[in-house]
Amino acid sequence: MIKNLKRLTFILVLLFVTIVATACNSNGDGDSKSNKNKIDVGIVLPTKDEPRWVQDEQRFKDALKDSKYSTEILFSQGSSAKEKENVESLLNKGIKVLIITPQDGAAAGAAVEAAKKEGVTVIAYDRLITNTDAVDYYVTFDSLAVGAAQAQYLIDNANGSNVPLYLYAGAASDNNAFLFFEGAWKVLQPKIADGTFKIANSSEAEKLKDTAELSRDQLSKIIGQVTTNWDPNKAKNKAQTHLTAAKADLKGDVAILAPNDGTARSIADVFSTDKAVKSFVVTGQDAEKASIQYIIDGKQSMTVFKDVRTLVTDAMGVAVEVLDGKTPETTGSYDNGSVEVKAKQTDVIVVNKDNVKKELIDSAYYEASEFNGLE
Ligand code: BGC
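# beta-D-glucopyranose complex -> structure
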């Protein structure tokens, strides 16, 4: 009996040791697994619903193929709450650097402050995060130049005087929408004042037509009235409403300041179905494939090409410098309402029918086979 008891005890001890050993082992595995899951750089982009950001995702993937650092890209799908969740999930994976394009520049403050608390370096990508000191770097295109280029294009292609001018803007929650409009207004305003253009669709802009430099509040008033919210459907509805209200003297040959390609295409579609609109010049931005086809087909006048490859290289360059313990080089700074954020800025290129091949095909940004009718 005693012998049996001893044997049983021995077996139980053996079993216990085996279980503990297995548990330790799987713990070890678990650790190495979670190490494998560790991410160095987290990237959060605003939405997959716009080709612009899917393009950025692809360019990041291309650039990251040979990187020694691990990365993960998440999309916020137009929701600041989802954006915060994305940042938290990346923080749980131990990121050291966060590259983020905010859905809403002010609302993103909370997410980046959480990242900052964990010692993460925050890089605002393309859109500035406002009213927080938790942003370390900003990599961006020259957004004032984007608006200025759109405005200059309308001026260069306007004939005579009193050309009806339809103004549209991006989302008021996006700091870029202010920069684009500010840049455009500075160039357009003297031409509104001298009678080249007459404003067709904004009483707020009309009230301010003699003011060359608009304050943030004044910009807010106009943007509030002509915003598309970066939504092609909203842009379409607004354009329809504007054309329904417009009398004959606001039709004929018209000029349209459209803030980006997605909204430009839907606004162009509306204007092209109004028989009283004889011709229109419409701007854009992003060099989206669909808009390049529109430009080739003569349905959109121009786009502002922002070479996303450069922005990705700059953002990853800053990230890698930080991870390597170096200080990234910057070229200027942006006031985000709370601090001066060190910035790296890239130039933009105006593209129309005449140079589309040179700028987009010869530079290997797109392939000629992706378009029809390209000469
Ligand atoms: C970007 C544009 C883009 C727009 C809508 C802006 O912040 O700079 O390239 O078209 O957002 O997503």
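# post-check
Residues 50, 52, 126-127, 170, 174, 176, 230, 260, 285-286 surround beta-D-glucopyranose (CB under 6 Å).
The first helix runs from residue 2 to 36.
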